[in-house]
Specification:
Helices cover 36% and strands 16% of the residues. It is α/β, with parallel strands linked by helices. The chain has a seven-stranded mixed beta sheet, sandwiched between helices.
Length: 211
């Protein structure tokens, strides 16, 4: 039987999901979810998505029906109290702008513990919510862990916070879950590029569907 996330992480996930994130998603953002039945509920899983807002990690994780461990910038792990909270919630540090080997090791360790691991395919936010320059990190982790990849599209989150404003706007947000994709057969570059492009095409196609 596959390992599951630590019990304390499961408790924190469901508490945060039902007390904060779900009410905001359903009521404030009038959230819709398509394809939730496609999400495996146990075992290794890599969730890849587009990225346009700081709201994306909790919105994505809360709609996966299971905890999702995300990479977080290493500076956050130097903040007292916060560092312990985000570790409990499954976050692991990565150096911004680098292919941090320790982050890859942390992702592989999380997968072995039964977590789903979430990665934003472009590695940073884009203004229009589409993926333009995907990175190969998710495919590399999938190949090393022999873990399937689930493409997910977040639509509308780029409009949540406008430049110069600190308050989230009550814009409509839609989450679309794509079809599960098998991991690459090897860590060869052509294999990694093929999977990455397949995920990019799937996510952008879902983004084009709009609301």
């Amino acid at each position: 039987m596959a390992n599951r996330e630590p019990v304390e992480s499961l408790i924190l996930y469901y508490l945060f999901k039902h007390s904060v994130v779900n009410p905001m998603f359903r009521l404030y953002f009038r959230g819709k979810v398509h394809g939730a039945e496609k999400i495996p509920q146990q075992g290794k899983l890599i969730v890849v998505s587009n990225h346009a807002s700081d709201f994306d990690p909790p919105l994505l994780a809360s709609n996966m029906r299971r905890p999702v461990a995300f990479m977080a910038k290493e500076e956050l792990f130097q903040v007292p109290v916060l560092k312990d909270a985000i570790r409990l919630y499954g976050a692991y540090p990565v150096k911004r702008g680098s292919a941090d080997r320790s982050a890859i090791r942390a992702a592989l360790a999380a997968l072995e513990q039964g977590w789903a691991v979430g990665l934003f395919l472009e590695g940073t936010r884009t203004r229009d919510g589409r993926i333009h320059s995907p990175k190969l990190g998710a495919a590399m982790i999938a190949a090393k862990a022999n873990a399937p990849v689930l493409p997910v599209c977040l639509w509308g989150t780029q409009a949540i916070v406008k430049k110069g404003s600190y308050l989230p706007k009550p814009v409509p947000v839609t989450v679309r879950i794509g079809e599960l994709i098998d991991p690459p057969a090897s860590t060869g570059r052509s294999e990694l590029e093929a999977l990455t492009q397949k995920c990019t095409d799937a996510i952008n196609a879902m983004h084009d569907l709009g609301r």
